[in-house]
């Protein structure tokens, strides 16, 4: 093709460049085959990204107010308020680990969960309308990290802690660290019918004040168990100010920390049997109970561990130590046998039995420098991110994987260099029982040289890698800048598994209840009603007008504004921007939204539609007039 040759020459593209472009380009009108749900890092949100195009499709507002969606500006305010900590309004989050809901250990495309490391919160997102439905503040912890991860049928959403505090986060001096500070894991019961976490069926367990890190719920062979790693088993308290060690040095002294092995099925039984006590009104199973009941074990894990990932068959647990060039693979069967045979080398200082490392370990693979996180594919490969190299290592899982690995072995196969400081990586379904392979995304923290420099603050870089071929070949296809916070983890699901609504199912739909709201306004029934000092505005919106258009209230009235979109056309979204009152709504086709505020500012406020919805969109407006209290009283 002469034209193609000419463009290649002009743009100095190699045949490999053009091949990579051809693998990722999605022509207009065609859709991506897979969708990434990525943590938004400090943005507090989630991002939906199409694969292989790496086009950003949407931000999902979660913990942070987001004006386009009206999130926190009239929509979802009470959901955000439910996440307040000690009555402090929180307007950001450090989101780390999104978790798509699973059925039988595979993504079912119905729900997504995500944690806020900064404040120990968990959010629930409905994948029919991609809106956040619930935010829960952890009642006993101010810090989380090992979450969110779901059990294979999403019965529970796991939220593991990170930085130990006294449970309930009351004050305690550092001298009391070993006695008063504690780690935790919280088991949030997910009620799928209601689409909400049920705090009344949820509970936590008390753990030693090690810094619990990532967690993964067992699946298939290991279903009913939970695995989590930890750092700071030294219980360093940071003595830099006294001429001692920083946390950095103190926390990484030991060669081994503890993989936490938890018999989750039995732990749930203990909760149901009432073997817990309340802390801050939340049921907590005490550490001593876990020890007495034989449901918590430790195994050594080398050296500053970070990732813990369970193989698709559930038989093996892969742990990466940031300061150890190996991944360490533990056998679930080996662990069970060690427990049954009481192969304990010691107890930790709180009395938790420590299993014999060699009895639990099945292999170690030298993958390279700074291994962090591992994902899997459908060919019997595992992929581990190497923060320090930086690269992604491909290695084979020992075990029975048919023709590909007739003599299965735990062996490094090859590496692909990625850009600086890779953190998590993800493959297609790569943490499920049914990974697909095909694509891998390296989530790099640094992007030096890759994009036009955006001042001293640079974007993150998601690199798309083709993993369809076997062996060493894993070509890099695409760099995607992420310019809004540092995403940590992401999951990739087949687009066909998602069943998003095109418009809300019926006019007057309340997305919080996922049902028609009795307060919605029907066309022709628009009205303004005064009930004492409450003024109820029953409004409809349709291209291109509000009805009613004039709203006059007295200063000090409470305005309860019911807005119903009677639109049925896809994408015919309207906004409602109200100046001075800091309000903006997104009213999607069929949606009912209710806002409530005290009209404490007298004046004339032109409200308008903030979505360019039609040719006469600029005319879609009205006046809110708030009569000064003095004038209102004199009449
Ligand atoms: S963590 Cu950030 S790279 Cu929060 Cu899963 Cu490992
Ligand atoms: Cu409705 Cu613009």
Structure commentary:
The chain has 635 residues and is mostly beta strands. It is built from ten helices and 45 strands. Strands 8, 9, 10, 11, 12, 16 and 17 form a seven-stranded mixed sheet that branches. The protein has a six-stranded mixed sheet with strand order 13-14-15-18-23-22. Strands 36, 37, 38, 40 and 43 form a five-stranded mixed sheet that branches. Bound molecules: [4Cu:2S] cluster and dinuclear copper ion (CUA). Dinuclear copper ion binds next to loops. Dinuclear copper ion (CUA) is lined by residues 544, 574, 609, 611-613, 617, 620.
Let me know the largest β-sheet. Answer: 7 strands, mixed
User: Roughly what percent helix?
Assistant: 10-25%
Number of strands: 45
Distance between the termini: 81 Å
Radius of gyration: 27 Å
Please count the helical segments.
Answer: 10
The averaged pLDDT comes out at: 96
- CATH homology group of the domain at 138-143 and 154-314 and 329-362: YVTN repeat-like/Quinoprotein amine dehydrogenase
**What ranges have pLDDT less than 50 throughout 5 or more consecutive residues?**
401-405
CATH T-level fold name of the domain at 138-143 and 154-314 and 329-362: Methylamine Dehydrogenase, Chain H
